[in-house]
Amino acid sequence: MRYREAMRTTIHRAKDRGRGEYGWLQTRYSFSFADWHNPERMGFGALRVINDDRIAGQSGFGMHTHKDMEIITIVRSGTLTHKDSMGNTGTVRKGEVQVMSAGTGVAHSEYNDHDEELTLFQLWIHTDEQNHAPRYDQRAFAFPAIGQTLVVSPFGVAEGLHIHQRAYITLATIDAEHHATYEVKEKGNGIYVMVVEGEAAVAENKLTQRDAITIEGVTTISFATDTKVELLIIEAPMR
Fold first, then answer.
1. What whole-number distance in Å separates Cα of residue 82 and Cα of residue 78?
2. Does pTM surpass 0.85?
3. pLDDT tens digits, residue range 104-145?
4. Where do the domains of the chain lie?
5. How far apart are the first and last CA of the chain?
């Protein structure tokens, strides 16, 4: 694979993430959040937050408000119960993705009404402009055993749940028998890749579970692994 000379990469090791231990919630912060502040980890372009949450049974986040942020929740296990000030109520399970555009302002709660632990990723992406009308959506995806699934995309793109930003979120599963690459969808976007499970070489950099890498200045990214690996790929504008 040939890369342009302008390629820039930064590796974020899992051990260097912020930690939140609240009894009912155990979380790891990829970027500064809550009580953890790292001036070198304030986001990546329009991508502001990636929280890796483990929520105990019969607990969760009470009603609270957001504004001008695209909030994406990817449930890994368990069941999430959602309520918001727009009148939406329901559950989100493994294999489902939830998107909430906070826009002019919305209040919501995210709760684990069950006894089993709930695990999820929550991402925040800055909107392309302020004061969009709030909206909510969710979808169950039929993820292939091996392959890439675009789960979040800008309005106007046929695939995925839509957000008010030129950003894309892809979930991928790869193995040693299938050569895999990611094609950058919009010129100038940066790519953030987290190894969710397993080990892989991403753009020729070896990463283990929950390690991540930021990549700029490329049009294609290569992946290589000796085992089955799950990846979270986020493409976001850098301005």
1. 13
2. yes
3. 999 999 999 999 999 999 999 999 999 999 999 999 999 999
4. 8-236
5. 27
Q: Which residues pair with 136 in a beta bridge?
A: 100
Alpha-carbon span 177 to 219, nearest angstrom: 23
Residues 6+ apart with CB under 8 A from 108: 63, 64, 66, 82, 83, 84, 85, 100
Q: Tokens 């939830």 belong to which residue? A: 98
What number does CATH give the domain 8-236?
Answer: 2.60.120.10
Q: How far apart are CA 43 and CA 146, in angstroms?
A: 29
Can you tell me whether residue 140 is helix, strand or coil? strand
**What is the radius of gyration, based on Cα positions, of the chain?**
17
- For 7-31, b/e burial (b = at least 16 CB within 10 A) is eebeebebeebbebeeeebbbbbbb
Q: Contact 166/189 with Cβ under 8 angstroms?
A: yes
Residues 216, 7 contacting (CB under 8 angstroms): yes
